[in-house]
Amino acid sequence: MSIIKYEIVNKVAMENSFTQAAQVLGLTQSAVSHAISSLEKQYGFALFHRNRAGLTITPEGEAMLRQMRRVLEAEELVQQEATNLLGVATGTIRIGVISSISSSWMPGIIHMMDQRFPGIKIELREGDYYEIERWLMNGEIEAGFLNTFESEQFQYMPLRKDPLLCVVSEQSGFYHHTQIDIHELQDVPFILIDYRGDNDVRRLLASYHVKPYIRFLLSEEVGVLSMIKHHLGITILPQLSINALPRGLRVIPLQQGSYRTIGLALRKNPSPATKQFVAVLQDWIDEQYENRIPSSPFLR
Predict the structure, then answer these.
(1) What is the DSSP code string of the chain?
(2) How would you class 176 by CB atoms within 10 Å of its CB: exposed for 0-12, middle for 13-18, buried for 19 or more?
(3) For 162-259, which CATH class?
(4) Short-list 16, 21, 20, CA closest to 5
(5) Which residue numbers delimit the HTH lysR-type domain (predicted)?
(6) Sign of CA dihedral 154, 81, 120, 8
(7) Tell me: the pLDDT tens digits for 34-70?
(8) Is the confidence at residue 261, as pLDDT, over 80?
(9) What is the pLDDT of residue 85?
(10) Is 196:129 a contact under the CB 8 Å cutoff?
(11) What pLDDT does 299 receive?
C-alpha cells in the first residue's frame, strides 16, 4: 500500500538512514530499500541521494515528502476520529521540545497522559527554536514548545512566563547583590547561551541597549555554568534551564523583572489526540503554577 511506503519515506527522511528507519518501523533494511526503489521507479526520479558520505533527500524527494506527510496526517486523523467516536482516545502525537521543557515539564505531563489516555502515544523531538519551527512547517511534528510563533496555519498558545535570571560565581562583584540592574552588565565578561531562532537573552540585552563583553558562545547550559564556575564570566538563563546549580554559583534576579514566554504552537485544527494532550498540559500547568497565562478556550 502507498500509505506504508509513504511512512517508510518519512522515517528515512527523519532518520537519514535506511538502517535506522528499518529498526524504528520493525522492518528489514532490504524491505525499506525496496519500498524506496519502487517509488522512485514509479515517479521516474530519485527521492534520496546515496553515497559514501551518507544519505540526503533530493529536492524532488522534499517536494514529494511534503505531500506524503499530508496524506499520513489525514490517515492519522481518520483513525483518531474513528476511535474518538467509540469513546476511546488513541493516536500518536509528535511534539517538539526545547531541553529545559523536556527535563522539567515533560516527565510529569507524560505521566498524567499515561494515566488519562493510555492509548495515546507521545513522541518527543528535542531541538532549538529554529528546528522546532522547521519541523512544524514540514509536518514532522504536530505541536512544539516555542517562545513565539506566527503562521496562518498554526496558533500559538502562551502558557507560562519563565524568569530570566543572572548566574554569577562567588568571585563576581555581583555575588552579594539581591538584584542586578541590567545596565550594570555593560562590558562585563559574559558567557552567552547561543541557539538558532529567537534568542531570549540576546533580545533582552538589545531591548535595553546593553552590550556585555561576550567571551564565549555555547549551546548547552552545562557548559555555560562550568565556565561561570571557573570565574570566566556571568550569564543570564531562563529559570527552567537552571535545574542543578553547581556549588559556588548564585542566581540573582534582574531589577527589570525580565522573562521569556513559553508557549505551544499547533495547527488551528488539531487532531483529537492533540486536543487531549493540550487539555492535560493545561491541567498540569494549573497544578504546578498559580499564575498561568490564560490560553485559547476552544480546546476546553
Answers:
(1) -HHHHHHHHHHHHHHT-HHHHHHHHT--HHHHHHHHHHHHHHHTS-SEEEETTEEEE-HHHHHHHHHHHHHHHHHHHHHHHHHHHTT---EEEEEEE-HHHHHHTHHHHHHHHHHH-TTEEEEEEE--HHHHHHHHHHTS-SEEEES----SSEEEEEEEEEEEEEEEETTSTTTT-S-B-GGGGTT-EEEEE--SS--HHHHHHHHTT---EEEEEESSHHHHHHHHHTTS-BEEEEGGG-SSPPTTEEEEEBTT--EEEEEEEEESS--HHHHHHHHHHHHHHHHH-S-PPP--GGG-
(2) exposed
(3) alpha beta
(4) 21
(5) 1-58
(6) negative
(7) 888 888 888 898 899 887 767 888 989 888 988 888 8
(8) yes
(9) 61
(10) yes
(11) 45
- CA 132, CA 199: separation in Å to the nearest integer? 14
Beta-strand relationship, 91-97 and 120-126: parallel
Q: Which cell goes with 202?
A: 540576546
Q: Which residue has the cell 545596565?
A: 183
Closest Cα partner for 170 from 237, 250, 225, 233?
A: 250
| Total-model pTM | 0.70
- The whole-angstrom distance between residue 51's C-alpha and the CA centroid of its chain comes to 31
Instruction: Give pLDDT, residue 79.
Output: 74
Look over the chain and give the mean of its residue pLDDT values, rounded to a whole number: 87
Q: At residue 125, what is the residue type?
A: R
Question: Mean per-residue pLDDT for 267-272?
Answer: 84
Whose grid coordinates read 546593553?
210
Could you give the CA distance from residue 206 to residue 211 in angstroms, rounded to a whole number?
Answer: 8
Residues with Cβ within 8 Å of residue 246, at least 6 apart in sequence:
225, 226, 229
Cα–Cα distance, 44 to 100 (Å, whole number): 45
Q: The C-alpha cell of 113 is what?
A: 497522559
